[in-house]
Amino acid sequence: MYTKQELLEMDIEIKNLFSLEHTRAAALFEGLKRPWEALPSIGDMIRKIGAALPEEEFDHPAEDVWIAKDAKVWPTAWITGPCIIDHGTEVRHCAFIRGNALVGQNCVVGNSVELKNVILFDNVQTPHYNYVGDSILGYRAHMGAGSITSNVKSDRSLVTVKVGEAVFETGLKKFGAMIGDQAEIGCNTVLNPGVIVGRASTVYPVSCVRCTVPAYAIYKDADNIVFKTKSMR
């Protein structure tokens, strides 16, 4: 039997947060245990993957930028490399992709959304006024309108990850959030630096999250986190 603390720490392991078959970045996670360990290598990984993408499927409109021919990118969007926009994805009006962004298949990058140093797994939706920086969003994760990842602490100190009674040193000054597969982030929520939201969990709208949210949980507030029933998963 595992203790409660052991279960919480297992929830934040890469293998329990993300379905790696739903991203081109799977190789980036090989040999890693904690998901934030992948953040410093996103740019180099994109360049390596992009260079091998088939020309008949991907346009290459700028240095280190690859966009699937069947992706829909609005003319008002701004995209800086290194960046990959995969098949079936839509990048909407005034989206700002600042580089080091791998956007998976069938994703939505919505109006006025800003992305920087991120991996979006397939079928991720960031549809309205979201900021996502130094973060990884798992398969079918969804961010409600106005929800953001805060990626720098106010005192500029290095980000730590709090998991139950444990504190993990990341060595990173910039680290937003890790959002597991099928997680739902409510509208106008702030995920503070180093937050991890477990697989298939839900965060209530207008939340300010500073702790790790376990898998299959509902975050109502810091003192009110309940687990979903099987019928809700």
Spell out the blueprint of helices and strands.
Blueprint (H helix, E strand, L loop, with lengths): L3 H8 L2 H4 L24 H10 L6 E5 L2 E4 L3 E2 L4 E2 L3 E3 L4 E2 L4 E2 L3 E3 L4 E4 L2 E7 L4 E4 L2 E7 L4 E2 L4 E2 L9 E5 L2 E7 L4 E3 L4 E2 L4 E2 L3 E3 L4 E2 L4 E2 L7 E5 L2 E4 L6
Parallel strand pairs: 2-5, 3-6, 4-7, 5-8, 6-9, 7-10, 8-10, 9-11, 10-12, 12-17, 13-18, 14-19, 17-20, 18-21, 19-22, 21-23
Antiparallel strand pairs: 1-2, 15-16, 23-24
From the alpha carbons, calculate the radius of gyration and give it in angstroms: 17 Å
Query: What oligomeric state best describes the polypeptide chains here?
Result: single chain
Could you say what the CATH architecture is?
3 Solenoid
Our count of domains comes out at: 1
CATH superfamily: Hexapeptide repeat proteins
Instruction: Kindly report how far apart the N and C termini lie.
Output: 23 Å
Characteristic terms for this protein:
mainly beta; single chain; five-stranded mixed β-sheet; 233 residues; UDP N-Acetylglucosamine Acyltransferase, domain 1; 3 helices
